[in-house]
Design goal:
Distance between the termini: 46 Å
Order of helices and strands: HHHEHEHEEHEEEHHEHEHEEEHEEHE
Number of domains: 4
Strand content: 15-25%
Oligomer: single chain
Shape: globular
CATH superfamily of the largest domain: Periplasmic binding protein-like II
Largest sheet: 6 strands, mixed
Number of helices: 12
Number of strands: 15
CATH architecture of the largest domain: 3-Layer(aba) Sandwich
CATH topology of the largest domain: D-Maltodextrin-Binding Protein, domain 2
CATH class of the largest domain: Alpha Beta
Length: about 350
């Protein structure tokens, strides 16, 4: 049987080897062109990373593809190819909420690819500080979860940052219960360490399967995984990357209460992207504390036919019951109808901050 299997596979493997040889030659040709692109960009002092251009490349290839590769696989492959090309042009550094193995790192990898210098920061404040100081080129920060809502600290820091939002990542969140020992029984788990949001996203599963285990909030899921790797009786809630990074074993998989659980991340830093035709614009607004003020604030959007995708409020901390409103609208700030709506908003509100216009995550 083995001889017959080898006989039938041999010509197929030979074809794959030929295709691989052609692919590596074409990839190196592409890399040489990327070097030439880099030289032209240097001459004109143009940015290395243009997210709107990369989005156009990926969407074009997805339209050209006839399968069997799925669109998400095409995107994943070309993200890595373009990441390697950017690294040839100029190395780039990206800060994220660490330590290694967090979903923030996974989001950074999904957006920038592997060929970047990733810098793990101990807190969201430090992620912002890294990109503000110029220690890194970009930062990736969580902004909201589909189950637990907004990340308040990110919203507060967006109020002060000078770096624009230049991209977003929408990441499926798959939580696993991770233990040090293979084949560990749930009965052996005395405590579960995870970020508070992860604990909240898995609370029903934990109540059903580990009702007596202590729930220990920690700074990140990766920190929980680190503790699980060295502490007997400790389990962590984290994703696949933390499982691999800390050499843990999954006692249970996909334990999130919402099977469609996702977290949205902002990418900060770099040059503001040009319009792609499928963009989003993020704003922070504030109005007088008086009847009808919020209705009047939103009127320019309706007047110019601009759709609002998100509306959140945060206390202004003035002691006067005033609020900042975080608003996402469809379209780019340079689009005619959006530009007209923003011009009206600037005139009508007490506070206006344009956080950025960027390609929407697929």
């Amino acid at each position: 049987m083995d001889n017959e299997l080898d006989r039938r596979l041999a010509p197929l493997r030979a074809r794959i080897d030929e295709i691989d040889a052609a692919l590596i030659d074409l990839l190196n040709q592409r890399a040489r062109v990327a070097l030439e692109v880099g030289e032209v960009k240097k001459h004109f002092d143009a940015p290395v990373f243009r997210p709107e251009r990369e989005r156009q490349v990926i969407e074009r290839l997805q339209r050209l593809g006839q399968g069997p590769l799925a669109n998400e696989h095409v995107e994943a492959i070309w993200r890595q190819i373009m990441s390697a090309s950017r690294a040839i042009e100029a190395p780039q550094a990206v800060a994220y909420l660490g330590p290694e193995g967090t979903f923030s790192e996974q989001a950074a990898l999904a957006y920038f690819g592997d060929a970047t210098d990733r810098v793990a920061a101990p807190s969201i404040d430090e992620v912002f500080r890294a990109v503000e100081s110029g220690a890194v080129d970009f930062a990736v920060v969580p902004v909201e979860n589909s189950t637990e809502g907004v990340v308040s600290r990110t919203l507060d820091l967006l109020l002060r940052t000078t770096r624009p939002i230049t991209g977003e990542v929408s990441l499926p969140i798959h939580h696993h219960l991770l233990c040090r020992d293979a084949g560990a029984e749930l009965a052996s788990v005395a405590r579960v360490c995870a970020h508070p949001q992860a604990l909240a996203q898995c609370q029903h599963w934990l109540s059903q399967h580990l009702p007596n285990a202590e729930r220990v909030p920690v700074s990140s899921n990766a920190e929980g995984a680190r503790r699980a790797a060295i502490e007997a009786g400790t389990a962590a809630i984290a994703g696949e990357r933390a499982l691999q990074r800390y050499q843990l074993h999954a006692a249970a998989r996909m334990i999130q209460d919402d099977p469609h659980n996702r977290t949205r991340f902002y990418v900060l830093g770099g040059t503001p992207p040009l319009s792609t035709g499928r963009d989003q614009t993020s704003l922070i607004l504030s109005v007088r504390h008086e009847a009808g003020a919020v209705h009047r604030m939103l009127a320019p959007l309706a007047r110019h036919g601009v759709s609002m995708n998100r509306f959140e409020s945060r206390p202004a901390r003035s002691g006067e019951w005033e609020y900042y409103f975080y608003v996402d609208v469809a379209g780019h700030a340079n689009d005619q109808e959006v530009a007209a709506a923003l011009a009206d908003l600037r005139r009508d509100v007490l506070f206006f901050k344009l956080l950025g216009s960027y390609p929407r995550a697929q």
